[in-house]
Design a protein that fits this description.
Strand content: 15-25%
Family: Belongs to the trehalose phosphatase family.
Bound molecules: the ligand O=P(O)(O)OC[C@H]1O[C@H](O[C@H]2O[C@H](CO)[C@@H](O)[C@H](O)[C@H]2O)[C@H](O)[C@@H](O)[C@@H]1O
CATH superfamily of the largest domain: HAD superfamily/HAD-like
EC number: 3.1.3.12
Shape: globular
Number of strands: 18
CATH topology of the largest domain: Rossmann fold
Radius of gyration: 21 Å
Keywords: Hydrolase
CATH architecture of the largest domain: 3-Layer(aba) Sandwich
Helix content: 25-40%
Protein name: Trehalose 6-phosphate phosphatase
Order of helices and strands: EHHHEHEHEEEHEEHEEHEEEHEEHHEEE
Oligomer: single chain
Catalytic activity: alpha,alpha-trehalose 6-phosphate + H2O = alpha,alpha-trehalose + phosphate
Protein backbone atom coordinates (compact mmCIF):
# COMPACT_ATOMS: atom_id res chain seq x y z
CA UNK A 1 0.00 0.00 0.00
CA UNK A 2 1.19 3.55 -0.57
CA UNK A 3 0.68 6.52 1.69
CA UNK A 4 1.71 10.13 2.16
CA UNK A 5 3.28 11.65 5.26
CA UNK A 6 6.00 13.79 6.81
CA UNK A 7 9.34 12.77 7.97
CA UNK A 8 11.48 13.35 11.03
CA UNK A 9 12.36 11.23 13.96
CA UNK A 10 9.49 10.69 16.34
CA UNK A 11 11.82 9.78 19.10
CA UNK A 12 10.56 9.15 22.55
CA UNK A 13 12.60 11.64 24.47
CA UNK A 14 11.80 10.59 27.95
CA UNK A 15 9.66 7.97 29.58
CA UNK A 16 9.37 7.61 33.30
CA UNK A 17 11.64 10.59 33.89
CA UNK A 18 13.78 10.71 36.98
CA UNK A 19 13.96 13.61 39.34
CA UNK A 20 15.23 16.72 37.66
CA UNK A 21 16.20 14.76 34.58
CA UNK A 22 16.73 16.89 31.52
CA UNK A 23 14.22 15.31 29.25
CA UNK A 24 15.40 16.92 26.03
CA UNK A 25 18.84 17.99 24.94
CA UNK A 26 19.43 21.54 23.86
CA UNK A 27 20.48 20.21 20.48
CA UNK A 28 17.27 18.30 19.94
CA UNK A 29 15.23 21.30 21.09
CA UNK A 30 17.13 23.53 18.66
CA UNK A 31 16.61 21.13 15.80
CA UNK A 32 12.92 20.71 16.51
CA UNK A 33 11.90 23.63 14.36
CA UNK A 34 13.23 27.05 13.48
CA UNK A 35 11.62 29.85 15.41
CA UNK A 36 10.41 31.60 12.31
CA UNK A 37 9.03 29.91 9.27
CA UNK A 38 11.24 31.57 6.71
CA UNK A 39 14.44 31.50 8.69
CA UNK A 40 17.00 29.34 6.94
CA UNK A 41 18.11 26.98 9.65
CA UNK A 42 21.11 25.45 8.02
CA UNK A 43 19.98 21.94 8.80
CA UNK A 44 20.75 21.10 5.24
CA UNK A 45 23.74 23.34 4.77
CA UNK A 46 25.57 21.19 2.36
CA UNK A 47 24.47 21.56 -1.25
CA UNK A 48 25.01 17.87 -1.80
CA UNK A 49 22.75 17.04 1.16
CA UNK A 50 20.13 19.35 -0.18
CA UNK A 51 20.27 17.92 -3.67
CA UNK A 52 20.26 14.39 -2.42
CA UNK A 53 17.30 15.08 -0.12
CA UNK A 54 15.37 16.63 -2.96
CA UNK A 55 16.25 13.75 -5.21
CA UNK A 56 15.00 11.26 -2.64
CA UNK A 57 11.86 13.26 -1.86
CA UNK A 58 10.81 15.08 -5.01
CA UNK A 59 8.04 17.62 -4.99
CA UNK A 60 4.62 16.00 -4.88
CA UNK A 61 3.46 18.71 -7.26
CA UNK A 62 6.10 17.86 -9.83
CA UNK A 63 5.38 14.17 -9.41
CA UNK A 64 1.62 14.51 -9.33
CA UNK A 65 0.99 12.23 -12.30
CA UNK A 66 3.09 9.52 -10.75
CA UNK A 67 1.22 9.78 -7.45
CA UNK A 68 -2.22 9.57 -9.01
CA UNK A 69 -0.92 6.77 -11.18
CA UNK A 70 -0.31 4.80 -7.99
CA UNK A 71 -3.96 5.16 -7.08
CA UNK A 72 -5.15 3.42 -10.22
CA UNK A 73 -7.88 0.98 -9.20
CA UNK A 74 -7.62 2.06 -5.59
CA UNK A 75 -9.56 4.32 -3.29
CA UNK A 76 -7.50 7.23 -1.98
CA UNK A 77 -7.92 7.84 1.75
CA UNK A 78 -6.61 11.23 2.85
CA UNK A 79 -4.91 11.84 6.21
CA UNK A 80 -3.92 15.38 7.07
CA UNK A 81 -1.95 16.75 9.97
CA UNK A 82 -3.09 20.22 11.06
CA UNK A 83 -0.33 22.52 12.38
CA UNK A 84 2.31 23.26 9.78
CA UNK A 85 0.36 21.33 7.17
CA UNK A 86 -3.04 22.99 6.86
CA UNK A 87 -2.07 26.09 8.82
CA UNK A 88 1.25 27.91 8.89
CA UNK A 89 3.35 27.67 12.02
CA UNK A 90 2.84 30.78 14.15
CA UNK A 91 4.13 31.84 17.55
CA UNK A 92 0.77 31.65 19.32
CA UNK A 93 -0.90 28.21 19.04
CA UNK A 94 -4.27 29.75 19.83
CA UNK A 95 -4.34 31.67 16.57
CA UNK A 96 -3.05 29.03 14.18
CA UNK A 97 -6.00 29.47 11.85
CA UNK A 98 -6.29 27.85 8.48
CA UNK A 99 -7.35 30.00 5.58
CA UNK A 100 -10.82 29.84 4.08
CA UNK A 101 -9.19 28.76 0.81
CA UNK A 102 -7.54 25.81 2.58
CA UNK A 103 -10.84 24.89 4.24
CA UNK A 104 -12.46 24.90 0.81
CA UNK A 105 -9.72 22.65 -0.55
CA UNK A 106 -10.14 20.17 2.32
CA UNK A 107 -13.92 20.26 1.94
CA UNK A 108 -13.57 19.47 -1.75
CA UNK A 109 -11.13 16.64 -1.11
CA UNK A 110 -13.52 15.13 1.44
CA UNK A 111 -16.24 15.04 -1.20
CA UNK A 112 -14.25 12.53 -3.13
CA UNK A 113 -12.06 10.76 -0.60
CA UNK A 114 -12.61 9.75 3.01
CA UNK A 115 -10.57 12.34 4.87
CA UNK A 116 -9.19 12.47 8.40
CA UNK A 117 -7.41 15.17 10.36
CA UNK A 118 -4.74 13.57 12.54
CA UNK A 119 -3.41 16.07 15.04
CA UNK A 120 -1.58 16.52 18.31
CA UNK A 121 -4.24 19.05 19.27
CA UNK A 122 -7.26 17.95 21.22
CA UNK A 123 -10.05 16.95 18.92
CA UNK A 124 -12.42 19.76 19.81
CA UNK A 125 -9.78 22.39 19.29
CA UNK A 126 -8.69 21.09 15.93
CA UNK A 127 -12.34 20.73 14.93
CA UNK A 128 -12.79 24.37 15.94
CA UNK A 129 -10.04 25.32 13.52
CA UNK A 130 -11.09 23.08 10.65
CA UNK A 131 -14.88 23.32 11.07
CA UNK A 132 -15.77 20.55 8.68
CA UNK A 133 -18.22 18.05 10.15
CA UNK A 134 -17.84 15.60 7.30
CA UNK A 135 -14.30 14.62 8.26
CA UNK A 136 -12.82 12.06 10.63
CA UNK A 137 -10.82 13.59 13.49
CA UNK A 138 -8.04 11.90 15.41
CA UNK A 139 -7.04 14.40 18.09
CA UNK A 140 -4.45 14.15 20.89
CA UNK A 141 -2.01 12.30 18.64
CA UNK A 142 -4.68 9.81 17.67
CA UNK A 143 -5.93 9.13 21.19
CA UNK A 144 -9.36 10.63 20.53
CA UNK A 145 -10.92 9.43 17.32
CA UNK A 146 -14.29 10.46 16.03
CA UNK A 147 -16.12 9.78 12.80
CA UNK A 148 -18.01 12.29 10.71
CA UNK A 149 -21.38 13.57 11.69
CA UNK A 150 -24.01 11.61 9.90
CA UNK A 151 -27.38 13.04 9.17
CA UNK A 152 -29.31 10.72 6.96
CA UNK A 153 -32.79 11.71 7.94
CA UNK A 154 -33.35 9.14 10.63
CA UNK A 155 -33.95 9.67 14.29
CA UNK A 156 -31.09 7.49 15.39
CA UNK A 157 -28.36 9.16 13.44
CA UNK A 158 -29.45 12.71 12.78
CA UNK A 159 -26.65 15.02 13.71
CA UNK A 160 -25.12 12.40 15.92
CA UNK A 161 -21.44 12.57 16.72
CA UNK A 162 -20.12 9.22 17.69
CA UNK A 163 -16.88 8.77 19.53
CA UNK A 164 -15.13 5.93 17.81
CA UNK A 165 -12.16 5.31 20.03
CA UNK A 166 -10.38 6.74 23.06
CA UNK A 167 -7.62 4.29 23.97
CA UNK A 168 -6.16 6.46 26.74
CA UNK A 169 -9.31 7.47 28.59
CA UNK A 170 -7.97 6.10 31.88
CA UNK A 171 -5.29 8.81 31.74
CA UNK A 172 -7.68 11.74 31.52
CA UNK A 173 -7.46 12.69 35.21
CA UNK A 174 -3.73 12.17 35.33
CA UNK A 175 -3.16 14.33 32.27
CA UNK A 176 -5.30 17.09 33.72
CA UNK A 177 -3.34 16.94 36.97
CA UNK A 178 -0.05 17.11 35.10
CA UNK A 179 -1.32 19.98 32.98
CA UNK A 180 -2.06 22.02 36.10
CA UNK A 181 1.29 21.16 37.66
CA UNK A 182 3.11 22.15 34.46
CA UNK A 183 1.30 25.48 34.28
CA UNK A 184 2.41 26.18 37.83
CA UNK A 185 6.00 25.04 37.33
CA UNK A 186 6.59 26.93 34.11
CA UNK A 187 4.77 30.16 34.87
CA UNK A 188 8.00 31.93 35.79
CA UNK A 189 9.58 31.17 32.41
CA UNK A 190 8.70 33.98 30.01
CA UNK A 191 7.18 32.74 26.77
CA UNK A 192 6.52 29.19 28.00
CA UNK A 193 3.04 28.02 27.21
CA UNK A 194 1.30 24.90 28.40
CA UNK A 195 -1.56 23.63 26.26
CA UNK A 196 -4.10 21.10 27.48
CA UNK A 197 -4.79 18.71 24.65
CA UNK A 198 -7.04 16.52 26.78
CA UNK A 199 -5.20 13.20 26.38
CA UNK A 200 -1.81 14.90 26.21
CA UNK A 201 -0.16 18.16 27.17
CA UNK A 202 2.02 20.40 25.03
CA UNK A 203 4.73 22.55 26.59
CA UNK A 204 5.67 25.16 24.01
CA UNK A 205 9.09 26.79 23.96
CA UNK A 206 8.92 28.61 20.61
CA UNK A 207 8.73 31.95 22.40
CA UNK A 208 11.12 31.08 25.22
CA UNK A 209 14.64 32.50 25.19
CA UNK A 210 16.96 29.69 24.11
CA UNK A 211 19.03 30.17 27.27
CA UNK A 212 16.06 28.94 29.26
CA UNK A 213 15.17 25.88 27.20
CA UNK A 214 17.14 23.44 29.29
CA UNK A 215 15.66 24.95 32.47
CA UNK A 216 12.20 24.47 31.02
CA UNK A 217 12.95 20.86 30.13
CA UNK A 218 14.17 20.33 33.69
CA UNK A 219 10.94 21.70 35.08
CA UNK A 220 8.98 19.34 32.88
CA UNK A 221 11.17 16.47 34.04
CA UNK A 222 10.62 17.38 37.68
CA UNK A 223 6.85 17.31 37.27
CA UNK A 224 6.96 14.01 35.43
CA UNK A 225 9.10 12.25 37.99
CA UNK A 226 5.94 11.24 39.80
CA UNK A 227 4.27 9.91 36.68
CA UNK A 228 6.10 6.86 35.38
CA UNK A 229 3.22 6.03 33.08
CA UNK A 230 3.74 9.19 31.06
CA UNK A 231 6.31 9.85 28.36
CA UNK A 232 7.58 12.86 26.49
CA UNK A 233 8.03 13.28 22.77
CA UNK A 234 9.13 16.34 20.89
CA UNK A 235 7.45 18.24 18.10
CA UNK A 236 8.16 21.60 16.55
CA UNK A 237 9.42 23.70 19.45
CA UNK A 238 7.16 21.77 21.75
CA UNK A 239 7.51 18.99 24.34
CA UNK A 240 4.55 16.68 24.31
CA UNK A 241 3.53 14.69 27.36
CA UNK A 242 1.29 11.71 26.93
CA UNK A 243 0.57 8.28 28.26
CA UNK A 244 3.05 5.55 27.54
CA UNK A 245 0.46 3.29 26.01
CA UNK A 246 1.50 2.06 22.61
CA UNK A 247 -0.72 4.37 20.66
CA UNK A 248 0.23 7.17 18.33
CA UNK A 249 -0.67 8.71 14.99
CA UNK A 250 0.42 5.53 13.26
CA UNK A 251 -1.97 3.43 15.31
CA UNK A 252 -4.70 5.96 14.67
CA UNK A 253 -4.04 5.65 10.98
CA UNK A 254 -4.37 1.87 11.25
CA UNK A 255 -7.55 2.22 13.22
CA UNK A 256 -9.05 4.61 10.70
CA UNK A 257 -8.04 2.45 7.77
CA UNK A 258 -9.62 -0.45 9.53
CA UNK A 259 -12.81 1.53 10.09
CA UNK A 260 -12.76 2.68 6.51
CA UNK A 261 -12.31 -0.94 5.52
CA UNK A 262 -15.65 -1.52 7.14
CA UNK A 263 -16.93 1.32 5.04
CA UNK A 264 -15.82 0.63 1.57
CA UNK A 265 -12.44 -0.96 1.25
CA UNK A 266 -10.84 -4.23 2.09
CA UNK A 267 -8.33 -4.28 4.88
CA UNK A 268 -4.90 -3.74 3.38
CA UNK A 269 -2.97 -6.95 3.12
CA UNK A 270 0.13 -8.32 1.57
CA UNK A 271 3.70 -7.22 1.52
CA UNK A 272 4.56 -4.33 3.76
CA UNK A 273 7.08 -1.59 3.26
CA UNK A 274 8.79 0.74 5.66
CA UNK A 275 9.01 4.38 4.96
CA UNK A 276 12.25 6.14 4.68
CA UNK A 277 12.45 7.99 7.92
CA UNK A 278 14.74 10.07 10.09
CA UNK A 279 15.32 12.38 7.21
CA UNK A 280 16.72 15.69 8.31
CA UNK A 281 14.86 18.49 6.70
CA UNK A 282 14.84 22.20 6.72
CA UNK A 283 11.47 23.62 7.66
CA UNK A 284 11.81 26.42 5.17
CA UNK A 285 12.91 24.18 2.39
CA UNK A 286 10.95 20.97 2.61
CA UNK A 287 8.72 20.50 5.61
CA UNK A 288 6.35 18.02 4.10
CA UNK A 289 7.33 14.63 2.97
CA UNK A 290 5.00 12.52 1.00
CA UNK A 291 5.84 8.89 1.08
CA UNK A 292 4.43 5.93 -0.63
CA UNK A 293 3.72 2.47 0.64
CA UNK A 294 3.10 -0.58 -1.44
CA UNK A 295 0.76 -2.37 -1.66
CA UNK A 296 -2.91 -2.76 -1.07
CA UNK A 297 -5.24 -3.85 -3.76
CA UNK A 298 -7.88 -1.43 -2.67
CA UNK A 299 -6.62 1.64 -0.88
CA UNK A 300 -3.98 4.30 -1.26
CA UNK A 301 -3.66 6.16 2.03
CA UNK A 302 -2.22 9.61 1.48
CA UNK A 303 -0.76 11.10 4.62
CA UNK A 304 0.53 14.67 4.69
CA UNK A 305 2.23 15.99 7.77
CA UNK A 306 5.20 17.98 8.90
CA UNK A 307 5.98 16.93 12.43
CA UNK A 308 8.12 14.35 14.14
CA UNK A 309 4.99 12.80 15.52
CA UNK A 310 3.74 12.25 11.99
CA UNK A 311 6.62 9.89 11.56
CA UNK A 312 4.63 7.45 13.65
CA UNK A 313 2.17 7.27 10.83
CA UNK A 314 4.96 6.14 8.52
CA UNK A 315 6.02 3.48 10.92
CA UNK A 316 2.78 1.64 11.15
CA UNK A 317 3.43 -1.77 12.54
CA UNK A 318 2.06 -3.69 9.65
CA UNK A 319 4.62 -2.20 7.33
CA UNK A 320 7.23 -4.81 7.90
CA UNK A 321 10.83 -4.19 7.16
CA UNK A 322 11.34 -3.91 3.46
CA UNK A 323 12.87 -0.50 2.80
CA UNK A 324 10.70 1.74 0.73
CA UNK A 325 11.88 2.74 -2.68
CA UNK A 326 12.85 6.39 -2.31
CA UNK A 327 11.14 7.28 -5.58
CA UNK A 328 7.87 6.77 -3.70
CA UNK A 329 8.60 9.61 -1.26
CA UNK A 330 7.52 13.13 -2.02
CA UNK A 331 7.64 16.52 -0.40
CA UNK A 332 5.73 19.75 -0.22
CA UNK A 333 7.27 22.96 1.01
CA UNK A 334 4.51 24.65 2.95
CA UNK A 335 0.74 24.74 3.51
CA UNK A 336 0.23 26.66 0.26
CA UNK A 337 1.73 23.75 -1.63
CA UNK A 338 -0.43 21.34 0.36
CA UNK A 339 -3.46 23.31 -0.76
CA UNK A 340 -2.27 23.22 -4.35
CA UNK A 341 -1.79 19.47 -4.10
CA UNK A 342 -5.28 18.96 -2.66
CA UNK A 343 -6.82 21.08 -5.39
CA UNK A 344 -5.03 19.18 -8.09
CA UNK A 345 -6.21 15.93 -6.60
CA UNK A 346 -9.80 17.14 -6.69
CA UNK A 347 -9.47 18.44 -10.25
CA UNK A 348 -7.98 15.14 -11.33
CA UNK A 349 -10.76 13.22 -9.62
CA UNK A 350 -13.45 15.44 -11.10
CA UNK A 351 -12.17 14.84 -14.58
CA UNK A 352 -11.70 11.12 -14.07
CA UNK A 353 -14.99 10.52 -12.26
CA UNK A 354 -17.77 10.47 -14.72
CA UNK A 355 -20.43 10.92 -13.52
CA UNK A 356 -19.45 12.50 -10.19
CA UNK A 357 -20.25 10.51 -7.05
CA UNK A 358 -23.91 10.55 -6.08
CA UNK A 359 -25.03 12.32 -2.92
CA UNK A 360 -25.38 9.06 -1.09
CA UNK A 361 -21.85 8.10 -2.09
CA UNK A 362 -20.46 11.36 -0.86
CA UNK A 363 -22.58 11.45 2.26
CA UNK A 364 -20.29 12.03 5.20
CA UNK A 365 -17.49 10.24 3.49
CA UNK A 366 -19.46 7.03 3.15
CA UNK A 367 -18.88 5.33 -0.12
CA UNK A 368 -20.96 2.59 -1.60
CA UNK A 369 -19.36 -0.79 -2.04
CA UNK A 370 -20.16 -2.84 -5.09
CA UNK A 371 -22.47 -4.87 -2.91
CA UNK A 372 -24.56 -1.74 -2.42
CA UNK A 373 -24.00 -1.87 1.29
CA UNK A 374 -22.78 1.23 3.05
CA UNK A 375 -21.04 0.75 6.34
CA UNK A 376 -20.61 3.47 8.87
CA UNK A 377 -17.62 3.54 11.20
CA UNK A 378 -17.21 1.14 14.06
CA UNK A 379 -19.68 1.73 16.84
CA UNK A 380 -21.74 4.00 14.71
CA UNK A 381 -24.38 2.40 12.55
CA UNK A 382 -24.74 0.26 9.51
CA UNK A 383 -26.68 1.36 6.51
CA UNK A 384 -27.88 -0.26 3.38
CA UNK A 385 -28.84 0.96 -0.07
CA UNK A 386 -32.39 -0.05 -0.87
CA UNK A 387 -34.32 1.34 -3.78
CA UNK A 388 -31.62 3.96 -4.20
CA UNK A 389 -32.18 5.13 -0.63
CA UNK A 390 -29.71 4.95 2.21
CA UNK A 391 -31.35 3.15 5.11
CA UNK A 392 -29.88 2.46 8.54
CA UNK A 393 -30.01 -1.16 9.56
CA UNK A 394 -28.63 -0.94 13.10
CA UNK A 395 -27.10 1.41 15.61
CA UNK A 396 -24.50 0.41 18.15
O1 LIG B 1 -0.10 17.21 14.93
P1 LIG B 1 -0.26 18.66 14.70
O2 LIG B 1 -1.63 19.04 14.23
O3 LIG B 1 0.81 19.21 13.81
O4 LIG B 1 -0.07 19.33 16.14
C1 LIG B 1 1.22 19.34 16.74
C2 LIG B 1 1.29 20.50 17.70
O5 LIG B 1 0.88 21.64 16.95
C3 LIG B 1 0.72 22.87 17.63
O6 LIG B 1 2.00 23.38 17.93
C4 LIG B 1 2.72 23.73 16.76
O7 LIG B 1 2.03 24.78 16.06
C5 LIG B 1 1.92 26.02 16.80
C6 LIG B 1 1.08 26.98 15.98
O8 LIG B 1 1.62 27.18 14.73
C7 LIG B 1 3.31 26.55 17.10
O9 LIG B 1 3.24 27.75 17.86
C8 LIG B 1 4.09 25.49 17.90
O10 LIG B 1 5.42 25.92 18.09
C9 LIG B 1 4.11 24.17 17.15
O11 LIG B 1 4.71 23.14 17.94
C10 LIG B 1 -0.13 22.68 18.87
O12 LIG B 1 -0.17 23.90 19.58
C11 LIG B 1 0.34 21.55 19.73
O13 LIG B 1 -0.54 21.36 20.82
C12 LIG B 1 0.34 20.29 18.88
O14 LIG B 1 0.75 19.19 19.65
Amino acid sequence: MHSIQISADSSNIGGAPNSGRIIASLESMRASSPTHLKAPTGLLTDDDDRLSWMRDHPSALNMFEEIVGMSKGKQIAMFLDYDGTLSPIVDDPEVAFMSEAMREAVRDVAQYFPTAIVSGRCKDKVFGFVQLAELYYAGSHGMDIQGPEVSIGTKCTRGSKSVLFQPASEFLLMIDEVYKALVEKTKAIPGAKVENNRFCVSVHFRCVDEKRWVGLAEQVGSVLKGYPKLRVTQGRKVLEIRSSIKWDKGKALEFLLDSLGKLHICKPQGRRLNLKSNVRFDEFLLPLLITGFADSEDVLPVYIGDDRTDEDAFKREDRGSIPKDTSASYSLREPLEVMEFLKRLVDWKRVSTNPPPSDSQKLSGLLVRPSNRVFAPTGFCTCEMRDRRLLPTCVS
